[in-house]
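Structure ticket #2291
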Amino acid sequence: MPIYPAVAKSAGVGGKVVLQVSVNPSGVVVATKVLSGPAMLRQAAVDALRRWKYRPATLNGTPVAVDITVTMSFHN
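Resolution: structure written out below.
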């Protein structure tokens, strides 16, 4: 789970952060790019994604790198 920034929470800032994520064949997040979302929440979303580990995607039984879109929601 992402850590909700205290300053954003106290300011009542919430919403969705949409990110483009590159995952390597081992399931490790290797790159992130914020596509949209409140500025106060973007870094928290990126930090959370960098801690995630995915089950590797496969093509014909072989692990492959993939790019995916992830949406994180922050609500008070």
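Closing remark: Strands lie at 15-23, 29-36, 57-59, 62-64, 66-74.
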